[in-house]
Amino acid sequence: MNQPRLVGGRYQLLAQLGRGGMGVVWRAHDTAIGREVAIKQVHLPPNLSPDDHARLRARTLREARVAAQVRHPAVVAIHDVVEEGAEPWIVMELVKGRSLDELVKSGGPLSPEWAASIGLFVLSALAAAHARGLLHRDVKPGNVLLADDGRILLSDFGLAARAGGQPGGAPMGTPGFTAPEALTEEPGRAAGPAADLWSLGATIYTAVEGVPPFSRTTAMATHGAVMTEPPRPPRRAGALAPVLLHLLEKDPARRPDTVALRAALRPVTAATMPAGPGPASWVLPKLPVYGSAAAVLVIFVTVVALILTGAPPATLAGTEPTPTTAKPTTAAPTPSSTTAPPVTATATPVARTPGTFTAIPRPCQLLTREQATEVVGKYTTSSTEATVKCGWGKARDDKSLAIYLTLFLYPRQGDGYETKLAEEHVQGVKAKAESQAGRGGSGTKQGEVFEIPGAGDEAAGWEVRETTFSTKKFTVYSVFRTSNMVGEVRFTRNVAEEPGLRDKTAKAIKYLAENLDAKA
Fold it and tell me: Region Disordered: what ranges (predicted)?
């Protein structure tokens, strides 16, 4: 009897969930954590030269790792990226539920209030991605998931690209949900965040009207309608109608930006969501239409649309720091004027407007010599990205005691939402950790999430024990926030158990948060 294939030494393939031109999506079992995941086997075009194949494979891996950096409770999580058999494999959260597309097709259009509420969730997810300098490029009803547990999730960052990245080639995205400027990208004129907001407008329109705004009988005819014709006049949208028509403008400069769109959607959601700057909870009650929908609940995963339609994304690196000589990095490019600048890596001193950071300080300066010695011992510092990451490792220690810090800055949004995005980052990290708490397999065990009081505005951590035939590792992971700045910390030692590491982590987090605020 054939044994299930094991990918990356830990992901056991169980069943095929979908297949298309760009690869196959599998349901799989993560033997290290003891959970089911979705894993995408990316098939690269077969007619490439060896050099082009290697470049495209490397770019796909890099961009998947970038997408994994989007921490948000309304984004389907990417857990891991591995390479096996010269193919990239992308490991994602397995979401049980159905897509907005299937919900509308089986149960009919949604009310304007519910459509606007879902739009507000997706908008917040897009704002988090845009703050990282990342475009989604394929927002559509099929990529908006309504999970069985009530969450609203944006999936499929498989087509994602860096804002201002290299355009060209065949149109990306899905006919009828791809903005006009994304259909005609030229060097130096790449689509920006406004293109994602156009796609969100087409998605909300479809949810409330029951049909897409530009659908025609062929893909080319649909593209033509997007480029040259107005959308169908809304008939059911009510107060949403002017918002949708504004979003679907051909000229990106005439569309509302993220701040204006948030302000426009919020009043329409009054019947479904409480007042406040953003969604009060990342779980919505069951929509009334659920009861009339005839579709059977199925499993949805992140990159289904990429399998069917797309090519891999553009370039931006993001890796975990390891003890090496520090190297300078460049800041991410700035998106179009329709949204806030991307998360910035900069060597300039940190500054704050009232309650808000405007730049990231040098991470390796956020622990004094005395503080680093207290939590690590005699140490050396290292970083792969000196402007956003730092590692403090114990010198000449065969147990490899080390602490690693990565900083994330959410730039000013114009309406104070940058702090909300930072809060959502922390919520997303904690939600992922809580979903894995108590699980284990093949020598790995994760503990419960615990709060760390007195560290910035909020902080939490969790322990992970890893034991293999040749290695043992005890790690305390943590995340903390001060204003619109988020830090993720990994404190690790190559031993089976380190009882004092949790207390050392709490102390280090408090030092880091205090020193961040002192540099304001």
Answer: 314-357
User: What is the pLDDT confidence band of residue 64, given thresholds at 50, 70 and 90?
Assistant: confident
pLDDT one-digit tens code per residue, 144-161: 999 887 889 898 775 555
What tokens were used for 138?
């394929």
pLDDT of 427 > 70? The answer is yes
Q: How far is CA 235 from CA 103, 211, 343, in A?
A: 19, 11, 39
As to burial, measured by CB atoms within 10 angstroms (0-12 exposed, 13-18 middle, 19+ buried), residue 420 is buried
**Statement: residue 336 has pLDDT above 60:** no
The CA-based dihedral angle spanning residues 434, 435, 440, 441, taken in that order and rounded to the nearest 10 degrees: -160
3-state secondary structure of 341: coil
Known binder of ligand: residue 432? no
- Average pLDDT (66-76) is 81
- Record the pTM: 0.69
CATH of the structural domain 1-315, one choice from 3.30.450.180, 3.40.50.1360, 1.10.510.10, 3.30.390.30: 1.10.510.10
Length of the chain: 520
Q: Categorize the per-residue pLDDT at 167 as very low, low, confident or very high, splitting at 50, 70 and 90.
A: very low
User: What are the backbone dihedrals phi and psi of residue 380, each rounded to the nearest 5 degrees, phi first?
Assistant: -130, 150
Q: Please, is 41 exposed, middle or buried when counting C-beta atoms within 10 Å of its C-beta (0-12, 13-18, 19+)?
A: buried
Closest by CA position to 191, among listed 201, 199, 203, 179: 179
Q: Is 226 exposed, middle or buried (0-12, 13-18, 19+ CB in 10 A)?
A: buried
Q: Is the dihedral of CA 124, 171, 90, 23 positive or negative?
A: positive
Q: Is 457 a residue of the active site?
A: no
- Token look-up 């959260």 returns 93
Taking 80 as the threshold, does the pLDDT of residue 304 lie above it? no
Distances (CA, A) of 429 to 61, 133, 423: 21, 19, 10
Identify which of 107, 105, 104, 142 has the alpha carbon closest to the alpha carbon of residue 122. Answer: 142
Is residue 495 classed exposed, middle or buried when 0-12, 13-18 and 19+ CB atoms within 10 A define those classes? middle
Report d(CA 467, CA 189) in Å as an integer.
51
| DSSP for residue 429 | H
Domain spanning 352-518: which superfamily?
Mog1/PsbP, alpha/beta/alpha sandwich (3.40.1000.10)
Sequence-ordered strand ranges (E) for 416-484: 440-441, 444-446, 450-451, 458-467, 472-482
Phi, psi of 237 (to 5 degrees): -75, -20
Q: Regarding predicted confidence, which is higher, 280 or 152?
A: 152
Catalytically annotated residue among 30, 138, 156, 196: 138
Count how many Cα atoms sit within 13 Å of the Cα of residue 494 in the half-sphere of its side chain: 9
Q: Where are the domains of the chain?
A: 1-315, 352-518
